[in-house]
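[User] Once you have settled down, look closely at the record that follows, and write a paragraph about the fold.
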Amino acid sequence: MRFQILLVALLALVSACGPGPVRYAAAPVPSGGRISIGVSQLEVREVSLPAYARSEEIWRESEGGALTSDSSVLWADDPARGITMELSQHLSTLTGARVAAEPWPFEELPQARLVVRVQQMVAGADGQFRMSGQYFVAALSAGRDRSGDFSVSAPFVLDGGAPAIAAARATAVRDLARLIADRGF
C-alpha cells in the first residue's frame, strides 16, 4: 500500500513538472521614416483592450467567427502593457519626441497625452491581424485636442501559428503609431 501511495505521489509530481505554456513576444519591426509632430513631450496612457484581448492568451477567429484561444500559447507580456510600450517606442523613434508610457517619469510635464481604446484585436480566419478603435490626443500645454478612429491590419500565414500572429501584431502596432503620428497632431 505504501508503495502505491508513493507511486501516485511521484506521478503527480512528475506530471506537475510537465511542459508549461509557451510565450510569444511581438517581434520588433522598423518604425519607418520620420514624421514631424507639434509636441516634443508625449505621455502614452495604458492602451485599453477588449476583455478577451486583455488576457495573456493569443486569440484567433475561427471560420465561423467565434474567438478561441489555447491556454498553452500566451503573449510574453501583459497585452495592454506590451502594446503600450511598443506604441511608445515607435512614436519616440518616428517623431524624435520624448515619449513615455504612464506614469510620466520626467520632472517637466508632457505637452500632450495619448489615449488609445482598442475595440477589436484579433487574428482573423482570413489571415489578417486586425486592430480597430479610437485614439485621443489631449493637448496639455498648447494646441488643440484631437481624436479619430483607426483600423489597421497586417497579414500573417494562417498555419504559421503564434509566431506569425506575434509578427503581425508588431506590424499592426507600428502602423497604428504611424497613423496616430500622421493624423493625431
Observations:
- The chain has one domain: 2-183.
- The helical segments are 2-16, 51-54, 79-95, 161-183.
